[in-house]
From TrEMBL:
It comes from Cohnella phaseoli. One of its GO terms (biological process) is L-methionine salvage from methylthioadenosine. ATP binds at residues 40, 57, 111-113, 246-248. Its EC number is 2.7.1.100. The keyword Cell division does not apply. SUPFAM superfamilies: Protein kinase-like (PK-like) (SSF56112). It comes from the Bacteria. The keyword Amino-acid biosynthesis applies. This is Methylthioribose kinase. It is an enzyme of class 2 (transferase). GO terms for molecular function: ATP binding; S-methyl-5-thioribose kinase activity. NCBIfam families: MTRK. Keywords: Amino-acid biosynthesis, ATP-binding, Kinase, Methionine biosynthesis, Nucleotide-binding, Transferase.
Length: 402
């Protein structure tokens, strides 16, 4: 029989106290529930006398953003802690340390990253993160290469996929990213000024054809172990440090999905500059910073993934001339398509992004929303014709000038 129940703050303190080597024996511990995501409880536990702190994260048996009517498997907490441990092995220093996990209670005790900010908030406040492209391209190249059939023993990979069968969380993505925005679904949520834009999404057959292809990839292509929800709210950041958190959507899927998630969230922020930049010159400069970052991420990822492949590739036939170029091109095209789908869902589907939703003026917000939709739908429709990251950036820049 499972012991599972949602923790009280006192229970969270008791669990924190039992983790060795963090807190001093004497001083009191205090606890705050700080979860502001869509799914979980997050307790921040600290000791004033030593300055020590940690996080206890516990999954709820339903999606907090909707309520108890949307049940969700608690197994996602095991998946999250096992994914964090693997990510630390392949990309050391780029995820929080896991101190303890309890699958019955669906909880993970981990490093407190309060010295960092959530990247989405940091960007909204105008933050510039000069090492981000270097760090995230490392994270992407290393975690995705070493869990793919190119970098992992292929029988071990098949066995590992069993630990990351994640049907409930995949279903969220399948519905909210690859289905509901393209039909008049109850879960959709958008400003009334977007009614005609949403209806165009619902009837655009050319768009539906490409979304169906992307959806098929998400459903069937077990290319590597993905983070599965790599938006800027899943990244803690400072100017010097990047930590990827929250891999509860982890599963074996198409590599371009994680890369596309990062691009999409930078592009949503790009669109939100309709409001967050004070004037045209600073908007241009901010957008240049964002597109430079996207370019640096792709070029860094591509170079590092190819180096890993050349040095550590486990597959003989994958060394065939031109196969690597063909593979990398498909990753770029997938990343573009998935980025587009992820941008569209944040405008018309369930669960938006603060970058855009916090724009107070409805007309300015509508301009940003329509820009995000234009970039998103263009990336989806053109994904299979794209041959360079510069073309992706060009799509965003031309849409913003239109
Ligand atoms: C019901 S969960 C809604 C969204 O929150 C998560 O962060 C994922 O992006 C999911 O699609
Ligand atoms: Mg999350």
């Amino acid at each position: 029989m499972s012991n599972y129940h949602p923790l009280t703050e006192q229970e969270a303190i008791g669990i924190a106290r039992s983790v060795p080597g963090i807190f001093g024996p004497e001083g009191e511990l205090s606890c705050r529930e700080i979860g502001d995501g869509n799914l979980n409880l997050v307790f921040h536990i600290s000791q004033a006398s030593t300055g020590a702190s940690l996080i206890v994260k516990q999954a709820l048996p339903y999606a907090k953003v909707v309520g108890e009517s949307w049940p969700l498997s608690l197994d996602r907490a095991r998946i999250e802690s096992e994914a964090l441990i693997l990510e630390e092995r392949f990309a050391p220093g780029l995820v929080p340390k896991v101190y303890h996990s309890d699958n019955d209670m669906a909880l993970t005790v981990m490093e407190d990253l309060s010295s960092h900010v959530i990247m989405r908030q940091g960007l909204i406040e105008g933050g510039v993160y000069p090492l981000f492209a270097e760090h995230i391209s490392d994270f992407l190249a290393r975690t995705l290469f070493f869990t793919s059939d190119l970098g992992m023993n292929q029988q071990e990979k098949k066995l590992l996929t069993r630990s990351f069968v994640n049907p409930d969380l995949c279903k969220i993505t399948e519905d909210l990213i690859f289905d509901h925005p393209y039909t008049n679904a109850d879960t959709n949520s958008f400003d009334s000024h977007l009614q005609a834009d949403a209806e165009r999404l619902w009837s655009d057959q050319e768009l539906h054809f490409e979304v169906a292809r992307l959806r098929e990839k998400f459903l069937t292509q077990a290319q590597a172990l993905l983070h599965g929800d790599l938006h800027t709210g899943s990244i803690f950041i400072t100017e010097q440090s990047t930590k990827v958190i929250d891999p509860e959507f982890a599963y074996f899927g198409p590599i371009g999905f994680d890369i596309g998630a990062v691009f999409a969230n930078l592009l949503l922020h790009y669109a939100s500059q309709e409001h967050w930049s004070a004037d045209e010159a600073s908007r241009k400069a901010r957008r240049q910073y964002l597109t430079d970052t996207i370019g640096d991420i792709w070029h860094g990822f591509e170079r590092k993934f190819r180096e890993l492949w050349n040095e550590h590739g486990t597959d003989r036939i994958a060394r065939t001339a031109e196969y690597q170029d063909d593979y990398m091109l498909r990753l770029l095209q997938d990343a573009a398509g998935f980025a587009g789908a992820k941008a569209v869902r944040r405008i018309v589907g369930l669960a938006h992004v603060a970058d855009i939703d916090k724009i107070p003026d409805a007309d300015v917000r509508a301009k940003a929303q329509r820009l995000a939709l234009t970039i998103g739908t263009t990336l989806i429709k053109r994904n299979r014709q794209l041959t360079s990251i510069e073309e992706i950036i060009h799509i965003a820049d031309s849409a913003s000038r239109a």
